[in-house]
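Late entry, nicotinamide-adenine-dinucleotide complex.
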Amino acid sequence: MSLAGRTALVTGAGSRGIGRAAVLELARRGADVVIHALDQEAAAGELAAEVRALGRRASVMLADLSRPAAARQLVTDALARFGRLDILVNNASTIIRRPFLEATDDDLDRILAVNLKGYFACAQEAARTMVRAGRPGRIVMVSSVNQTLAVPEQALYCASKGGVMQLAKVMALELAPYGITVNLVAPGTIETDINRHLLADPAFLRRRLEPIPLARIGSPDDVAAAIAFLASEAAGYITGTSIIVDGGLSLP
Ligand code: NAD
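Prediction complete; structure with ligand written out below:
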């Protein structure tokens, strides 16, 4: 499962979430990492220092991935920084919780711009880079159990993650001849900046815990382990599929 000699780009790693944990796990396994953040320059800089302390190279890049040109430029800049790009972890996403009857066209545009169009632009640019390099590559999409599981008040988020799932599957088909694998990691409830404020409410926490057979909220490290596996040589014969990291939430 060594990633020595590989270079990875992880998006959405400026917060205390799955992206940050993925950066550290990839670095522990030997990868150099380009750390993308929206605007959290200081936090991303601290993360880069942690990566360097592990003996790996790290670089921080800021970009608003709701802008396709910025997303594409991010991949180009990441390639230029270390001279190669072997692994893309598409992770940066946003969420809007609102009843379906109240959701607006602007809500839909905002969700799709980051969660689907941003993933598309980064993935296409990275795949083109990998094809040009003529080396096998790994693309990991951080999706959600909501790629298939319906949740009230999250119609737009669920739609974006369902779209990412199908995007990844078709990419897997078309990129297989180039030795590029494309897989999804689908987390359940993981405590991160995206939901920390909600999980602090005991009633909300109880409701979230109740349907989880393993009886705990997941950690970013739980998800990072699956990302690192899919990014490794060990996962070389796996493509177009999902690893569900949800403590059994979606079993029933
Ligand atoms: P997070 O809020 O820590 O991470 C999301 C990141 O995306 C943030 O760093 C944010 O700055 C970045 N981002 C948002 N809009 C952006 C934009 N326009 N341009 C660039 N970056 C932008 O939350 P997280 O839980 O670590 O989320 C990581 C991934 O995991 C997301 O794809 C999310 O949908 C998925 N996920 C999380 C959970 C959970 O319970 N935490 C469950 C299922 C799926």
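Strands lie at 7-10, 32-37, 58-62, 87-90, 137-142, 180-187, 242-245. Will revisit in the morning.
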